[in-house]
Task: inverse folding
């Protein structure tokens, strides 16, 4: 060592005072020779007192080293003394006021020319703050890992090319496998996970969607069934998002997956309830209808029976009144026909099923109805104007039922117009689009209008002399069975507008 | 029940039903009027004849049963209901409220004819009684004020002497009043007069016992 002209002792003291370390030295037996005044201040003892204390234990440390650390520290110190290996430990030292702080203590042996240890020199550094920071960080890390494991959700991580590298505890418990245990020979880990855990029906879609995301970097979002350890598949709602570095490169994918089995079940139950309700409503409608049918059929039958009795009386009179008997018979024929018409209408209503439905252009149906009714319109001197939106898409309907509806609505309009003696007898029929998913058909007349537009759809309700009171109720049933609506409003100027809507089927949804 | 001394009212909104019923009643040679609604019936001036009202339950302007209630206090013929779909509660209600019958379409000629007959007979009886009462009231109105005082005493069963004392007149005078009353009320006997007074709801003012003390 070069002497720079300062006394060595002063040099050492300056070094002591200006560095955070607190120096010490000891003899080869481990007895302290020098202890920094800073250390003595800290522990609140002077050197003599400390020297006296030293006699009471192996190294005189029992008083100052935390009891939990003492044995470890002493063992290590004795080990260094015995082997000559450098000493190093971290432990708590008691301050004068009884508080403990963490220190790092490091010492090296000093040897003579023959390599014999002549003493030990070391330094004590206060590491309390560092220790606290470490503890806080450990705590945070523990909390985070607890969070990751305890959130009621499956979390997983993927490498940028899609290899799973982490499952949280929930996911491990669910699958019964940790990420490394999913590996299978001859396939990537992702393929193995898909084969093991994703429902076979969902696997292709899952791997397609995930691969697309890995390529494009878009977020992943899918529902699929995931296999639980016991072999039961449960519905999951899953999402994954990429984590990017500052350059925008994907460094990892984070995925989460939420068990939605119970919700799916609830939804299923709900849907079944709604279906049941719909059927119940339909049944209620049917019983309502059957009462109407009884009425509809009994009405002409009663008229027939009465006319038959009358006819018999005309014939058995003396002399027989053939003229009157003939009139009675004509009534009987007329009423019998109208009874059979009721029956065939009812048959149309009930015999048609969904199977009879097909994609049809409503314009064609209307044209056919118009052809069917041309004579009736001509006899009654009624003009029918049509206005078609030719761009309307086809609708899924039962053409015969739709014909029935249109004929009924047009007859209704004809009846309304019969009250007009002079003036235009006009029916306007038009088709228009009503929003994205609906087409609308309107039948307008310029008749006197109706008092209660909603009541005309009730069974039995009729404003006509010999009306059935059923036609419009049946029409409404037909339209509603096509998921459409049928309603009437009074035209602002005069007459009635009967309107129905039909839904446009999404392609392939039928 | 001769064909022309009663009338049948048909109220049904179904024109076919009206026609056939009319045909039938015509073939029976009965007098009838066919109407399409309750209001048409109400505005029709009915001849003063016993009759029957054939009423469809499902009328366009009012429910037949409600209409029955509405006219129950007026002078209307008995009702025979017709319905396309008869239910027990409605028919019970109709009969309770005084309907003669409740026929479900289609009905037989016999049921209809029987129902009309019994309705007409019922109406005839009611009318007869009403007419009789009317005559009695006219008779009562023809009595002098003094005779009207004597009448309750006589029907109470008081002896002529007692009745005369009650009114402070002579027995002879009372006897004259009494024979006038018998004459005017067209009563054949005292028992007949008591029956007539009962129909006219003339109160008995004196019991015999009260007067005999």
Result:
């Amino acid at each position: 060592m070069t002497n720079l002209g300062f006394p060595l002792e002063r040099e050492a003291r300056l070094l002591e005072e200006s560095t955070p370390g607190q120096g010490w030295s000891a003899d080869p037996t481990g007895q302290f020779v020098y202890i920094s005044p800073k250390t003595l201040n800290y522990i609140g003892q002077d050197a003599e007192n400390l020297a006296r204390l030293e006699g009471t234990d192996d190294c005189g440390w029992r008083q100052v080293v935390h009891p939990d650390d003492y044995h470890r520290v002493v063992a290590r110190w004795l080990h260094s003394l015995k082997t000559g290996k450098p000493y190093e430990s971290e432990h708590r030292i008691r301050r004068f006021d009884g508080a403990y702080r963490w220190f790092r203590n490091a010492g090296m042996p000093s040897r003579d020319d023959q390599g014999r240890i002549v003493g030990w020199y070391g330094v004590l550094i206060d590491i309390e703050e560092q220790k606290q920071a470490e503890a806080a960080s450990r705590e945070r890390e523990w909390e985070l890992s607890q969070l990751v494991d305890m959130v009621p959700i499956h979390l997983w991580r993927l490498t940028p090319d899609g290899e799973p590298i982490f499952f949280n505890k929930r996911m491990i418990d669910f699958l019964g496998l940790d990420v490394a245990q999913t590996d299978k020979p001859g396939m990537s880990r992702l393929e193995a996970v898909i084969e093991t855990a994703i429902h076979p029906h969902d696997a292709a879609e899952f791997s397609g969607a995930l691969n697309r995301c890995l390529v494009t970097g878009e977020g992943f979002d899918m529902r699929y069934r995931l296999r639980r350890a016991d072999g039961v598949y449960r519905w999951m709602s899953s999402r994954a998002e990429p984590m990017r570095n500052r350059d925008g490169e994907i460094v990892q994918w984070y995925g989460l997956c939420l068990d939605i089995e119970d919700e799916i079940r609830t939804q299923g139950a709900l849907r079944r309830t709604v279906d049941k309700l719909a059927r119940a409503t339909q049944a209620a409608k049917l019983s309502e209808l059957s009462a109407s049918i009884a009425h509809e059929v009994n009405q002409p039958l009663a008229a027939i029976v009465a006319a038959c009795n009358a006819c018999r009386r005309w014939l058995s009179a003396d002399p027989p009144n053939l003229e009157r008997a003939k009139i009675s018979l004509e009534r009987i024929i007329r009423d019998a026909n109208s009874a059979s018409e009721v029956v065939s209408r009812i048959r149309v209503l009930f015999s048609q099923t969904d199977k009879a439905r097909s994609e049809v252009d409503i314009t064609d149906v209307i044209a056919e109805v118009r052809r069917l009714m041309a004579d009736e319109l001509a006899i009654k001197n009624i003009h029918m104007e049509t206005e078609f939106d030719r761009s309307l898409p086809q609708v899924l309907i039962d053409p015969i039922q739709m014909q029935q509806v249109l004929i009924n609505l047009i007859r209704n309009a004809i009846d309304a117009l019969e009250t007009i003696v002079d003036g235009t007898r006009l029916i306007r029929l038009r088709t228009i689009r009503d929003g994205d998913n609906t087409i609308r058909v309107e039948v307008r007349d310029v008749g006197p209008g109706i008092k209660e537009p909603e009541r005309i759809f009730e069974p039995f309700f009729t404003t006509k002399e010999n009306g059935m009171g059923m036609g419009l109720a049946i029409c409404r049933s037909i339209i509603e069975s096509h998921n459409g609506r049928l309603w009437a409003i009074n035209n602002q100027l005069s007459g009635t507008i009967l309107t129905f809507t039909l839904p446009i089927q999404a392609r392939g949804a039928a | 029940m001769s064909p022309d001394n009663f009338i049948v009212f048909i109220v049904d909104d179904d024109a076919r039903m009206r026609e056939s019923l009319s045909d039938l009643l015509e073939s029976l040679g009965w007098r009838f009027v066919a109407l399409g609604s309750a209001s048409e019936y109400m505005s029709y001036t009915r001849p003063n004849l016993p009759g029957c009202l054939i009423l469809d339950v499902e009328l366009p302007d009012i429910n037949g049963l409600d209409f029955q209630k509405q006219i129950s206090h007026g002078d209307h013929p008995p009702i025979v209901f017709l319905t396309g779909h008869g239910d027990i509660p409605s028919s019970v209600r109709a009969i309770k409220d005084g309907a003669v019958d409740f026929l479900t379409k289609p009905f037989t000629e016999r049921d209809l004819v029987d129902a009309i007959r019994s309705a007409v007979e019922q109406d005839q009886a009611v009318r007869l009684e009403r007419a009789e009462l009317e005559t009695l009231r006219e008779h009562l109105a023809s009595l002098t004020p003094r005779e009207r005082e004597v009448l309750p005493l006589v029907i109470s069963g008081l002896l002529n002497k007692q009745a005369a004392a009650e009114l402070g007149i002579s027995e002879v005078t009372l006897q004259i009043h009494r024979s006038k009353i018998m004459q005017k009320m067209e009563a054949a006997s005292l028992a007949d007069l008591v029956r007539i007074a009962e129909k006219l709801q003339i109160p008995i003012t004196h019991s015999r016992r009260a007067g005999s003390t």
Notes: The beta strands of chain B are 7-11, 32-35, 51-56, 79-83, 101-104.
